[in-house]
């Protein structure tokens, strides 16, 4: 089983194995014969660099993720957890929110960068993996299942907003805010749903404004154009970027000129340790 992108260098060396003689010739001229009971299976994303000689030697089965939807990906992700309470709770949240939310974003919102639905769901799973941890209160045997499900729903909504709905423009955010509030009444009435995060201690939504330091002072030795004043936007974007990078996930910062992409990247990178 070959699972990964096709590389033009090594795939050409496999052509002789896929011939009738089924012989693999190595760089050191050693020859290995493949037994008749062995078959090769290539699971690849595309055939962009595969030559016609390679393609003609294989039988092709093409699967478009749109034919299957996002559900198989989520099922595979949930199967990686051993906490049955967590799996059951999260499956309910996926079934309840993700389908309608994806449809709403697709039909009602304009996105700064169009994100495929499967990629958006994958981003949701990544955020849930990073944030819904035992350190944040997701124990395997919760004493109060109702409170556990409520707390899990808060985290799910929070991660959903910053994955499925993260790429919409300002007008889209207002639409998302209205739509989510129609589904759920767990958010404070002030501002939009984008202005809140889940506080672990209180197990409720709290405004990002509480994360702004009241003791912040600018460095008088810095040139004026290098002074960056912390805002709600900078705090939350640095939060997500730091969490994703700590888990070795790539991050793409998008936006028009002057929205703080470069300053966010600099701030996060300066906060990383040498490892």
TrEMBL record:
Domain of life: Eukaryota
InterPro entries, per the entry: DHC, Dynein_AAA5_ext, P-loop_NTPase
Ranges in coiled-coil conformation: none
Gene Ontology terms, MF aspect: dynein intermediate chain binding; dynein light intermediate chain binding
One family name in Pfam for this protein: Dynein_AAA_lid
Gene Ontology BP annotations: microtubule-based movement
Residue ranges annotated for the Dynein heavy chain AAA 5 extension domain, each copy included: 91-209
GO cellular component: dynein complex
The protein's name: Dynein heavy chain AAA 5 extension domain-containing protein
């Amino acid at each position: 089983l070959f699972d990964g992108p096709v590389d033009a260098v090594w795939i050409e060396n496999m052509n002789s194995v896929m011939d009738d003689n089924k012989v693999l010739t190595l760089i050191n001229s050693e020859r290995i014969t493949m037994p008749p009971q062995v078959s090769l299976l290539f699971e690849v994303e595309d055939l962009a660099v595969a030559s016609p000689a390679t393609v003609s030697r294989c039988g092709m089965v093409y699967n478009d993720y749109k034919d299957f939807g996002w559900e198989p990906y989520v099922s595979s992700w949930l199967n990686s957890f051993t906490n049955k309470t967590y799996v059951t709770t999260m499956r309910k949240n996926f079934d309840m929110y993700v389908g309608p939310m994806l449809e709403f974003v697709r039909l009602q919102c304009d996105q700064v960068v169009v994100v495929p639905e499967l990629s958006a769901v994958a981003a949701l799973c990544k955020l849930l993996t990073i944030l819904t941890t035992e350190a944040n209160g997701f124990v395997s045997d919760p004493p109060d299942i109702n409170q556990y499900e409520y707390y899990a729903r808060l985290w799910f909504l929070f991660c959903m907003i910053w994955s499925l709905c993260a790429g919409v423009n300002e007008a889209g955010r207002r639409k998302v805010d209205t739509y989510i509030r129609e589904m759920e009444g767990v958010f404070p009435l002030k501002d939009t749903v984008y202005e809140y995060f889940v506080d672990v201690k209180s197990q409720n939504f709290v405004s990002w404004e509480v994360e702004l330091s009241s003791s912040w002072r600018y460095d008088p030795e810095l040139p004026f154009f290098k002074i960056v004043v912390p805002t709600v936007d900078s705090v939350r974007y640095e939060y997500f970027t730091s969490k994703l990078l700590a888990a070795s996930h790539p991050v793409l910062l998008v936006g028009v000129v002057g929205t703080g992409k470069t300053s966010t990247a600099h701030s996060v990178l300066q906060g990383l340790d040498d490892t």
